[in-house]
Amino acid sequence: EIACLTLAEAGPHQKMKIFTASRQTIHGFSKKGKNFYSFDTNLTEPITSFCIQRDHLWIGGEYVYNHFVNQNEANFYMAEDRINSVAVDRISSPGSMDAILGCQDSFLRVIQENNLHYEFGVEGPITKLEPYQPHSGTLVTVGSRDQERFTLYGTSNGYVGQMLMASDSCRRGWSFRAPGGVTCLSTYDLLRDGVVDVLVGRDNGNVQAYGFDTLHNPRLLFERSLNESITSIDAGVVTTPPYDEVVIATYTGKVLCFTTEPVADQVLPVIP
């Protein structure tokens, strides 16, 4: 059973590969399905979330976070509550990649090596973290301070929010609430206007995309309601170049694609 998967570079100047986590083992696959990488971590907990960048692997189990370098354990941290999501970013210093843990007790925790760097409480149990890197100077970065990094979070009680994270402090950006717990987040410039939009999947089957208005607040671009929980969401040019599409996976294994191509009854309507 695959608990989670991600795309990452397997090495310098290499194309993106597929990496999956199954119990305590990480596997890597080429786009043709060849299993080119397997790493048994020998951890006692099953892997629930992970990030990989070349020879670095950041893993979240149920309560334990581990950092591996070249398949050797480098750092370890026991969280105060269940770890639901792991992300990485340069928080404590420009040259240091730190882990960000989203926990069941509603705290976001930044881990520098083996130590808690700082923590910040949000509106509910964190189910998903997503580093937020705008393509260019966009509306959502107005008012940010030097060296702040942007991280999105989703909670089980329906909140989606933005955290602005500096080396020694963290502050809130925008946040909003909608029905359904957040199961997945992604970002993409869906409107191609230079502003990176936010894609949200929820456990009640709702799929949403949010852009930003002139006051820098999120606004709903489109919404669809399906009959089952959304397990994954992303966007890009997939089946009909040059049109962007939102790709969704559901709990029962269905994969759906919504396109911006102007086809009758299929185009994503943007809410004015």
Write structural notes for this entry.
- This protein is 0% helix and 54% strand.
- By secondary structure, it is mainly β.
- The strands form six sheets. A four-stranded antiparallel β-sheet has the order 1-2-3-4, with no helix packed on it. The protein has a four-stranded antiparallel β-sheet with strand order 5-6-7-8, with no helix packed on it. A four-stranded antiparallel β-sheet has the order 9-10-11-12, with no helix packed on it.
- A hairpin with a 6-residue loop joins β1 and β2.
- Mean pLDDT is 88; it is low at 136-144.
Topology:
Elements: E1 4-9, E2 16-22, E3 25-29, E4 35-40, E5 49-53, E6 56-60, E7 64-69, E8 72-78, E9 83-89, E10 98-103, E11 107-112, E12 115-121, E13 126-131, E14 149-155, E15 159-165, E16 170-177, E17 182-188, E18 197-202, E19 206-212, E20 218-225, E21 230-236, E22 245-250, E23 255-259
Antiparallel strand pairs: 1-2, 2-3, 3-4, 5-6, 6-7, 7-8, 9-10, 10-11, 11-12, 13-14, 14-15, 15-16, 17-18, 18-19, 19-20, 21-22, 22-23
